[in-house]
Amino acid sequence: MSEDFPQDQFSDSDSRPALPPPDFDFLIYSLRLQAEMNLGLLPMMSDQGSDLELARHHIDLLAMLQEKTKGNLTAEEKRALDNSVMELRFRFVEAQKQSAQ
Question: Which residues fall within 8 angstroms of residue 36, CB to CB, at 6 or more apart?
């Protein structure tokens, strides 16, 4: 990827820390973080409320990855993905119940 996009065009090392390598764990983390943010679970974002439709979309993306990568993940990657999907689905149901009240 770095061959396609020279670093000096897209990052200013003085303004932010270096980005982590683009790996599967970071992809899971990024999608999970987006879902958590849209569920209103992050303290820094809690004043902005929740967007359940967008949260569900991110959870569905993780579930699609879960299905498409079956049998191709390390034990750690599978555990991280499975746990993320299960926990986010649970939190989504909780958020739906709260919004209905």
Answer: 42, 88, 91
